[in-house]
Amino acid sequence: MRNALIGTLAASALTLAIGQANADEHSIKVGTVAGPETDVMQVAVDIAEREYGLEVELVEFTDYVTPNAALADGSLDANAYQHEPYMQSMVEDRGYDFAIAGRTFVYPIGAYSEKYDSLEELPDGATIALPNDPTNEGRSLILLHNKGLITLDDPSNLQATPLDIVENPHNFDFREIEAAQLPRVLPDVDMAFINNTFAQPAGLSLDDALVSEGPESPYVNIIAVRAGDEDREAIQQLVDAYQRDEVAAKAEELFKGAAVPGWK
């Protein structure tokens, strides 16, 4: 009787474990940055549920650092908010072991001003706000270098900071600000470089930018996972659901041409 009971309990435990494993494989957590990018991801989530029975819990963040920390510690199965250069900078700085599961969109960065209508109008000594995360700061400075407004010691350095400026003939005053705060400080500076992630919700259109990247930008956003998970079935189902015309159409609706599909 006792052996039969033990056998029954063991079988029940095995069944429970198998059921839990199956549930885990069909249920994932994905990090996004709050705003329109989350709305775009929701379309992919709906497709994944409809076609694959995949349950996706979206976890929204308001900064660029925490989603990678959450992915690294296992709180997330994937995140979708960053481009590859930024991910690589975090890997180098923090020792994360990440991989790319798929590509999403290019979100060109732009420089905005409430005081001036062109770069030529910027006065000497103008205050320019930059995103303080590693690659987006360099991305902004490279745009200024390419416009001949500053000179960088190495314009191919994606992690350039104001310390890498060797010529600043207009004596611009650079302020390094958390990316999410840039729309709020825009009235207080002469110009601010703002990612579309935060520009669009603030009512800023790329058409209004004094300078911006074109669709040829190498900064394609990605779906990042822990290394070894990129071929996981649930992850690939999410990637497949994301890389659809329905998702591209939602991005077009929300970003008005300022989100370019990176998988086509």
Structure description:
It is a single chain. With 264 residues, the protein is α/β, with parallel strands linked by helices. It has helices at 2-25, 36-52, 66-72, 84-94, 134-146, 182-185, 196-199, 233-242, 245-255, and strands spanning 27-33, 55-61, 78-83, 98-106, 110-112, 127-131, 151-152, 165-167, 173-177, 191-194, 211-212, 220-226, 260-261. 38% of the residues lie in helices and 23% in strands. A 6-stranded mixed β-sheet has the order 2-1-3-12-4-13, with helices on both faces. It has a 5-stranded mixed β-sheet with strand order 9-6-10-5-11. A two-stranded antiparallel sheet has the order 7-8. Strand 1 (27-33), helix 2 and strand 2 form a beta-alpha-beta unit. The longest helix is centred in the N-terminal third of the chain and has 24 residues, at 2-25.
What's the gist of this structure?
Helix content is 38%, strand content 23%.
From the structure above, extract its key features.
38% helix; 5-stranded mixed β-sheet; 264 residues; 13 strands; globular; 6-stranded mixed β-sheet; alpha/beta; 9 helices
What radius of gyration results from the CA coordinates? 22 Å
Number of strands: 13
Please describe the biggest sheet, giving its number of strands, its sense, and whether it closes into a barrel: 6 strands, mixed
Low-confidence stretches: 1-23
**Overall mean pLDDT score?**
90
Number of distinct helices: 9
- The percentage of residues in β strands lies in 15-25%
